[in-house]
Amino acid sequence: MQIGSADYQTLVKRFSKNSRTAKNTLNAFWTGGLICILGQALLDLFDSQKHLTHDEAVAAVTVVLVLLSALATGAGLYKPVAKFAGAGTLIPVTGFANAVVSAGLEFRSEGLVTGLGIKLFTIAGPVIVYGSAASFIYGVILWIIKTLA
Q1: pLDDT tens readout for residues 32-43
Q2: What angle do CA 86, 90, 92 make, to 5 degrees?
Q3: Which of 17, 38, 103, 126 lies at a CB distance of 3.0 to 4.6 Å from 119, suitable for a disulfide?
């Protein structure tokens, strides 16, 4: 059965729900903002510690946010918040932690290596590879600019 472009567009309009763009944007904005406020509060707390440098405090904030996101995902708390907030929970580092843990939880019944381990690296692998490649490329570009300047 072949369907034409115009017929397809008619079907899409008929069965698609209208998006509440303004409401979704606002929810994403303030939820993402709350995550960032939590991160800033943690940074201020860690910066006030005499035994941590600022760079160590920044790293500690990242670790804590990833840990909290992973725990919330495992406890089933992250999904309803993400459904409400949309991209507000996906953009910070918490979204990456949620994606990795969710994949691991989904396939844990297949075993530690074939299910959990493989799925964790299926999600995290491309991020690590592309992140490393992008860092290298940006580094080369920066080196070229500094050399020519």
Answers
A1: 999 999 999 999
A2: 130
A3: 103
